[in-house]
Backbone:
């Protein structure tokens, strides 16, 4: 994504360029949508990918790949690369991409991209273990490394195309202005989308029909060029048609499209053009914008960073476009064939589709998320990740949800008041399940523990093992003091919960929580509670 600090500064000080924004029709909405919270308390998720056997995987910026199954995140990571991945220097660094080999069922290969402490972006191949929920950490093979000059604009998205080749986006790697103009540099992989054949080992091959094979000076891996930071791209279902959401600079965001018959080689113009507008200082006085545009490809859709005069809401206004897939699922048939996108700064979900000779766009719903990815599962249903650690699923609004917040109106009094008419399965009289906030979940094999914060102010711990599920304990913040802490035991499960004072922080009093299972083994040992007079929260220990 773009450097948000720089982008915000540009929004404040710059005026709109001369880009002519197309008029996109606003059709009447006959369906209403909401985002259903699937899981939270993640560490800055950057994306979701599914394996051919249907499992969903979440990538965290710090370097973990987690398994999402039946709406729950398994406690043991699929792969933990935090020692290799550098996610501290910049918001744009970290674990960037994940893709599963089309022959995953036979070879167990999957591919990741990440940045290290030297800003270099690496592409590596790993293999799953015989246990499908865990990868082999020692199986990593490095296929490609691309040095970068700064911590910004990494790209790193990975997807296999319908042709079986691996596609990888790489940002221009420089400062916001890309003063090196790497997107136009033919012997530099930055500012490009690559296309490589990873079917052989240990390295990769160049497909013979790549557009620059045999052309002097060109890196043959290059499939497309002239991009700033193609954070996400996607293929239309069963097609080579390609959508590329390229994060803009100071004025606007752009979405590029290539039809199914394209053969690569397109140049999207950065840093000569930003969208349709010539970048100030580019070219020479002897060349007009029309002359410089010869041979370049331009976006099918752009939107601004500032609202123009007479803005009517028919297009978004943002700072960092987040592209998604073309919808192919069954749950929302009216969206089939429509490209779904958002923006990191506004978080609203929009659709884009071609109609006749033009393109139309319509907003699906407003959100307050900082969206990092819009992805799909094996069935083509849509999931949204946000940097604040939550995964949502896009669904139709429930029947009776007249204000489109995801709850039928009878339940909208949460959390302002308890609703005695709602069913409750967690031990709080008069507070229905819709009012219970899911705070913490951990799972290992057939054993799992859930911790909820009830509205009356205590942490409610609920567990399952091979013998069934049930209540374990209520951990009451009022009993947690620097002198006392807490130790709770449960006879049914034989579990022990300990909370020990760890010190004061800017957020409040911090307690280390440890949960031992019935065999006396650590089940949870990286959990902390933060207690203040006004709020309760949890976090992972550093």
Residues:
């Amino acid at each position: 994504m773009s450097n948000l600090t720089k982008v915000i500064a540009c929004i404040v000080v710059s005026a709109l360029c001369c880009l002519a924004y197309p008029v996109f029709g606003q059709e009447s909405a006959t369906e209403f949508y909401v985002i259903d919270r699937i899981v939270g308390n993640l560490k800055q998720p950057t994306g979701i990918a599914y394996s051919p056997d249907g499992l969903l995987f979440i990538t965290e910026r710090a370097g973990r790949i987690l398994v999402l199954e039946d709406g729950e995140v398994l406690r043991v990571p699929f792969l933990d690369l935090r020692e290799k991945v550098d996610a501290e220097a910049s918001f744009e660094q970290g674990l960037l991409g994940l893709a599963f080999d089309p022959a995953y069922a036979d070879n167990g290969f999957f591919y990741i991209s990440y940045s290290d402490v030297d800003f270099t972006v690496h592409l590596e191949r790993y293999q799953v273990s015989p246990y499908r929920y865990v990868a082999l950490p020692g199986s990593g093979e490095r296929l490609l490394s691309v040095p970068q000059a700064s911590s910004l604009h990494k790209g790193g998205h990975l997807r296999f195309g319908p042709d079986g080749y691996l596609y990888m986006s790489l940002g221009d790697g420089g400062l916001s202005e890309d003063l090196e103009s790497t997107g136009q540099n033919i012997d530099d992989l930055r500012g490009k989308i690559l296309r490589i054949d990873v079917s052989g080992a240990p390295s990769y091959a160049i497909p013979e029909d790549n557009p620059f094979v045999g052309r002097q000076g060109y890196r043959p891996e290059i499939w497309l060029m002239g991009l700033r930071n193609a954070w996400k791209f996607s293929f239309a279902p069963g097609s080579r048609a390609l959508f590329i959401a390229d994060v803009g600079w100071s004025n606007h965001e752009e979405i590029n499209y290539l039809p199914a018959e394209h053969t690569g080689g397109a140049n999207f113009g950065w840093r000569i053009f930003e969208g349709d507008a010539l970048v100030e200082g580019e070219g020479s006085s002897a060349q007009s914008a029309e002359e410089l545009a010869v041979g370049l490809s331009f976006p099918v859709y752009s939107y601004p960073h500032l609202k123009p005069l007479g803005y009517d809401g028919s297009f978004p206004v943002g700072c960092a476009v987040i592209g998604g897939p073309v919808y192919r699922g069954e749950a929302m048939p009216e969206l089939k064939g429509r490209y779904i996108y958002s923006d990191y700064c506004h978080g609203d979900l929009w659709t884009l589709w071609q109609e006749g000779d033009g393109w139309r766009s319509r907003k699906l719903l407003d959100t307050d998320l900082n969206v990092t990815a819009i992805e799909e599962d094996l069935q083509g249903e849509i999931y949204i990740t946000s940097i604040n650690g939550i995964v949502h699923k896009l669904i139709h609004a429930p029947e009776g949800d007249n204000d489109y917040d995801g709850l039928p109106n009878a339940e909208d009094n949460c959390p302002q008041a308890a609703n005695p008419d709602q069913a409750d399965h967690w031990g709080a009289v008069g507070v229905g399940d819709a009012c219970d906030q899911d705070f913490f979940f951990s799972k290992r094999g057939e054993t799992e523990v859930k911790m909820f914060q009830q509205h009356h102010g205590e942490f409610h711990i609920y567990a399952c093992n091979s013998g069934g599920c049930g209540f374990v304990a209520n951990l009451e913040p009022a009993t947690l003091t620097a002198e006392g802490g807490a130790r709770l035991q449960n006879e049914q499960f034989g579990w022990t919960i300990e909370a020990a004072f760890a010190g004061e922080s800017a957020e409040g009093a911090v307690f280390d929580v440890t949960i031992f299972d019935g065999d006396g083994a650590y089940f949870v040992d990286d959990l902390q509670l933060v207690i203040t007079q006004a709020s309760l929260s949890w976090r992972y220990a550093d």
User: Anything to note?
Assistant: The chain has two domains: 4-24+31-396, 435-540. The CA atoms of residues 265 and 367 lie 37 Å apart. Residues 1-29, 409-437 have pLDDT under 50 and may be disordered.
